[in-house]
Amino acid sequence: MVQLESGICSCSQSFFCTCHLYVYHFIGENKTWDEAQKYCREKYTDLATVSNMTDMERLRKSTETLTEAWIGLHSYPENNNRRWYWSLPGLEFKETQTRWDSGEPNDVGGKENCLVMNNQKWSDFPCNDKHQFICYMETKQSNESFHLIIYTLTWPQAQRYCRVNHTDLVSGLDQLDDNSLKSGSDVWIGVFRDTWRWSDGRNFSFRNWEYVEDLVDGQSDKTCASGQLTDSFVTKTCPTDKLILINESKTWVEALNYCREKHYDLVSITNLHQQRWVQERIKEASTEFVWLGLRYTCTLDFWFWVSDEVVSYTNWASGVQCDDCDMSAVMEREGRNQWFKKPDNETFNFICSEI
């Protein structure tokens, strides 16, 4: 399994640059983290950002050498800037939507950066404590199932178990409100906090630490992350980011024409990974919904992507009837980032894609 470990930034080692969402460049030169960050920003986009296990596999495939290499994850623990995250990538943790027990969080045992739940109430605990835990499984039919694992593990071990055997630790209030999760004992859930940030400023919560200690603030002035990686090395000439949020309100046809004139097309979403990248982009939108490149044709009675991609993945909100004329798809900026249908003549921000 590919895992991340913390390192001191003054060490010199190889590193990964990223140039857009799906391409990584392995740089076989030994540099400090700061030198590697400067190099990537000058020649590509930035040090590599990793949003989920699929990205970890892409990193593995970008080098033929068994090595450790810098990625764009760094920490400034002296600033006391710990932030809470959901374990499941793509979910935004909101301080206004929490279930803390009375007096929590309290760091009573020192740095307590992981959460247990008991009867829907949350308490912070040291991540190296051992508890039972709840895994979440997403099926191909977009159904959800939950699995209480009765043997005890540390929080990182529990997260790793869930990611290998299911999808992730149970994450998000929608999942935690399920009646089957009203356990009367302490169980780990998918919430943690740390001081780590991605170099390119993205708010991805994905971590894959090798050691429990990496979820506790380090002692150095600045700490950086590297990956233990293997497999093939690929080099390409890289463009900039492939998804562009347009903060202008246009009808669906106007948005389509804009994207085709200035970029490539309105965005298509054909899998969960792409869904998570788009929902990260639309957080900065100025409208409640954002147009997608998905439209309904009355003549042929089906939905289609304007890019001619097959409609194999969907994320419709429950109860949406999808058979009206002059309708196109939008993604909601907040909530679960689900899809809704809207009349073509309404105006929203939109996402363009590059080739």
TrEMBL record:
UniProt cross-references to PROSITE patterns, sorted A to Z: C_TYPE_LECTIN_1, C_TYPE_LECTIN_2
UniProt keyword annotations, A-Z: Disulfide bond
Listed InterPro entries: C-type_lectin-like, C-type_lectin-like/link_sf, C-type_lectin_CS, CTDL_fold
SMART domains (alphabetical): CLECT
Keyword Disulfide bond tagged: yes
Domain C-type lectin positions: 24-136, 131-238, 248-353
Source organism superkingdom: Eukaryota
Name of the protein this chain belongs to: C-type lectin domain-containing protein
Originating organism: Anabas testudineus (Climbing perch)
